[in-house]
Design goal:
The chain has about 240 residues and is of the alpha+beta class. The protein is about 45% helix and about 20% strand. The chain folds into three domains: about 1-85, no CATH class; about 90-145, CRO Repressor; about 170-235, CRO Repressor (2-Layer Sandwich). It is built from eight helices and nine strands.
Length: about 240
């Protein structure tokens, strides 16, 4: 019984390490060869996990072999566009200048209902608002509005909003995030002083986020939301 437990834990760790080594995209939307490998990995690992009679190497060696093959396919895909198109497919234009390409939909074995569902997922209830839509190689639909329906850009309105970067979560779950704090160039003492000025301790804050305009948003652990200017915009260093 203990042997089964150890084998199961070891194979689980091998599966996690292998999936992580394949890259972050492997955990999101799959290419066809990645999906096939994921299914095979689960099948290969399940046999030695279920039975002590199956040597452990019978599960580990095929996983190693598939990892090598996956690496070779990935490298070949990066080097040769034709090979990538063969194993992964290529994007297909299904709406061009507002008109649905029925022939392309038929080639992809997609119905109009499938297209409309994909457009809703992209944020469009009315297909008449879509000027261009592309079925990506991984099967997702990317859609862009017509020129008349897209929102104006700040440059077109002659506005200068200033730099907008990624906000930093300085506190999550009542715990200070030292790496994010370091990236901002600020100190824990500064953060605690800001909170103390509002009668708060670190543990009383569920989430503290500081944006690149110096505005801090606090979600309190007991409920409640606070927003205030913690830094001048010119003091922002990231």
């Amino acid at each position: 019984m203990f042997t089964l437990f150890i084998r199961g834990a070891l194979l689980y760790v091998v599966m996690i390490v292998t999936m992580r080594a394949l890259g972050k995209r492997q955990l999101g939307e799959f290419e066809p060869y990645e999906l096939a490998m994921t299914i095979l990995l689960a099948d290969l690992i399940s046999s030695p996990m279920e039975s002590v009679g199956v040597p452990l190497l019978h599960g580990l060696l095929p996983v190693a072999a598939m990892f090598v093959v996956h690496g070779a396919i990935t490298l070949a895909s990066l080097r040769w566009d034709g090979f990538r198109a063969l194993v992964s497919g290529k994007p297909a234009l299904v709406i061009n200048r507002g008109e649905i390409d029925q022939r392309e939909l038929d080639r992809l074995c997609l119905s109009v209902a499938d297209l409309l569902e994909g457009l809703r997922g992209a944020g469009y209830l009315d297909p008449a608002e879509v000027g261009t839509a592309i079925v990506e190689a991984n099967g997702t639909i990317t859609a862009f509005p017509t020129g008349a329906d897209r929102p104006p850009k700040t440059a077109e309105l002659e506005l200068t909003p200033g730099y907008e970067g990624m906000p930093m979560a300085l506190i999550t779950g009542g715990r200070v995030q030292p790496n994010n704090l370091k990236r901002t160039g600020l100190t824990r003492a500064w953060l605690e002083d800001v909170l103390a000025g509002r009668g708060l301790a670190v543990k009383a804050v569920y989430l503290a986020s500081l944006d690149t305009r110096g505005r801090m948003t606090l979600q309190l652990a007991g409920g409640g939301l606070m927003r205030f200017q913690a830094l001048a915009a010119e003091e922002v260093a990231w």
